[in-house]
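Exercise 7. Predict the joint structure of the components listed below.
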Amino acid sequence: MLKVIVNRLLISIVVLLGTLTLVFSLLHLLPGDPVNIKVAGNPVSAEVIANLRHEFGLDQPLYKQYFQYIGKVLHGDFGKSLIDNEDVMVKLMAQFPATISLTLLSMVIAIVLGVLLGVLSAVYRYRSLDHLIRLISLFGISMPTFWVAILLVLIFSVHWQWLPASGVGGFQYVILPAASMGIVGAGLIARMVRGSMLEAIHEPFVRTLRAKGLPERTVIYQHVLRNALIPAVTMIGMLLGELLAGAVVIESVFARQGIGRVILDAIMAKDLPVVQGAILLTASLYIIVNLLVDLSYTIIDPRVRES
Amino acid sequence: MTQMESPAVPSMWRGRKRKTVRMVNGRRSLFSRLLIAASGLLLACLILFAIAPQWFAPYSPTEMNTSAILQAPGESYWLGTDYFGRDIFSLIVFGSRDALLVGISAVLLGGSIGALIGATAGYAGRMLDSLLMRLIDTLMTIPGILLALTISAVLGPSKFNLIIAVSVSSIPGFARVLRGQVLAIKSRPFIEAARANGTSHFSILFRHIAPHALSPFLIMGTMGVGSAILMGSGLSFLGLGSISEIPDWGSLLSQGRSYISVAWWIATFPGLAITLLVVSVNLLGDELQAAVGPRKGSTKGGDSK
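Solution:
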């Protein structure tokens, strides 16, 4: 088991380095270098440009720039914004709580709703309720989140005026954005849970449990569900990535503050250090959560532990 | 787990056996047959719209009727008009071409590249496998839309760049599934036999393994078209789509957002169009999976542990 954990940790580090490299090369793939963006068409002397190039380390050979960049990032230094000269780390951290609360709430909605629908669907399989739930979850995964958001605003803000359509503030501001992401995620989870429950129902151990006379309720909720939820746990890691990315669109729809908003603004303004920092931040979150999910997998599932 | 304990549990198992047998025989319920028929019809309509929009759109998509701005859905304008007095239904009909084009070509491009990477990794094994899969893992850490967003921002807003952006973010999924498939097929005896016969690696991969990996590829491709359409419309919703006279569904929706309190139809119908298209495509994918695909667990082999 220790070997599995160490192995998994090493892979995460390699992947993180890979992401760093990808993010670094982004700088060199972009047409126009940061100096041009910084001076933004203002007439400046060659000396100023040379100074700026030096400041960004662009006069160094590529491999030196690469190692310097990695060194800086490992020290938590993501550079400064080209637009307002603010420290990227500070800028991102200021927006972090808003995005995390949005992501977590939508995750809770997605998991509770998704597992509930998935289990009901599997238990009542091939009957009307199952058909209905399958249709709902099919729509769930097929609707663009921004459209769900707009529909929710139409219903709850414009028509009934129950919840605010945009802005940041108390809890009521996060409900609609989280619901629009949660609904889509719930569709995904419901389909997944239904599938893995049906798969588990047909396994021989279930026949054995029934044969020994266990009540159907115990078979389903104690044994089948437990087995079916293991693949669903893996989904959580994937879902987090999806939701974090979804925040980019949703925060823009609801005019919320947050990492997504910062990313979008930075991408539009070609503010490279901010884009790099934000991508690195979400990527490392994704890597960490998936690492935790994989590790918890080895704890939950004895089959993984032993192999 | 307590919240799932409903009182209806014991009774609901009565019909179980009969229903299971019915599905095993391959007969489908009336409900799912109707659903499939409806989505097939819808898909056919949208493809016709995309081929010859001028035959179906009652108005020109660029025609601005200043005497009929922000008209509610009614007799002359079925789905209403926008701020410029353009007919929403005609705009949707004309926009179907872009939606299908982005969805299908992004999957063809990203899917082929991903499949090639995955198949190579699975077949070669060892170092190359680890190297390629770590590359894919890296690509996966950046959530799809974020990757696509960055790429299309780098390349600039255009239809072609949008396709590139969406296809790059669909590479990892294909690579993982195809790797798993190839790994499973590679160990079967007929591959060993082909090797013993002196067949080249290239020929084994493309003539012996590829046909067996085709159906998961097709299923994944169909599902991929759905998510590519969603991602593409998301990007153009954010203003990174094509810049042309005829807005695509995503940007139409985005324009409608500003008029949401006075004209709900502008944002609602393009979104409905996206949803219905993606629902139909996904349903087709589900059907394909049920018809030819292996069990759902086929992707499990793709996990690089």
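Discussion. DSSP finds eleven helices and no strands in chain B.
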